[in-house]
Design a protein that fits this description.
Blueprint (H helix, E strand, L loop, with lengths): L17 E2 H21 L5 H16 L3 E4 L3 E7 L2 E6 L3 E4 L7 E6 H13 L11 E5 L1 E3 L3 E4 L3 E4 L5 E12 L2 H6 L4 H17 L18 H16 L4 E13 L4 H37 L7 H16 L16
Antiparallel strand pairs: 1-5, 2-5, 3-4, 3-8, 6-7, 9-11, 10-11, 11-12
Helix pairs in contact: 1-2, 5-6, 7-8
Length: 330
Amino acid sequence: MPIKPAQAAASEHVVSTMNGWMMLLVNLALLVGAAYVVSHAAEGSLIQVLGGLLGLGGFIMLLGYFTLQPNQARVLMLFGAYKGTVRDSGFHWANPFYSRTRGTASQKDTASHEGQRNRARGVRLAGGLGFQWLTTKLSLRARNFNSDTLKVNDKRGNPVEIAAVVVWRVENTAQAVFDVDDYTSYVEIQSESAIRSVASHYAYDQGEDHEITLRGGADEVALALKDELQIRLAKAGVIVEEARLTHLAYAPEIAPVMLRRQQAEAIIAARRIIVQNAVVMVHMALDELDKKNVVKLDDERKAAMVSNLLVVLCGSSDPSPVINTGTLYT
């Protein structure tokens, strides 16, 4: 049995409508004329019937008015067929039979995801087999989606808690309406999936040499998250303006251990710097003694002096000086 090819993405085309104020004058004139004809025509005559039909048409025309604010659009659908998108703000009139609502996924289909998000807030989601009905008006403004705090495993397998904010807007209204059931829910689900995917490709911190980490490479991680989101949300006609992490921490079960590890790594790094600089200072001291001919030291006394200086410079507490009252060799 041959496999059917994937359905092509819906393509948006912008259309214009009639000016609402002009059509309102025509509409009022039609209603007034119909009322005049009905009232002055002979009862039961054909002219009176035509006047009644004219008035009925005028009342139906009243259903064709709608307004759009800046950065708002309306998708025009006539008996299920896509007729175009209106993007101009103002007062408009269009075919009264254009749909004002659109069906999306049933509540039963979306209950599992929304229930997971609302369960923590104590909100009980009402299930059902009916459809949710959404308006054909779409906002083209930029929106924010703040994800919940997710627990994922980083590149090393350590559990971390992560959350992000995604700034997005609808670009292709036809795709947003016809290619996905509910584009807002689609954005939320795909955003959380992208966050999990990106977090698993980076270590939390202390990666290999020149390796980007979640903690140290915030800009690089944000760019990778934005690219991942754009690939996933392109099907819904959505443009991702920005994506950034808002929360990043080790999971509570390993946080104390990782804190001790970070403290140990910080101590080691500090000791490394102290030792390197102490060696430089000892070398400078020996060179100055030799150059200025202050004292002549054999290898054994040099070794003792190096040992004492390193103890003083690298010690974690102040040393207690010991005064030698004898000779250099006693």
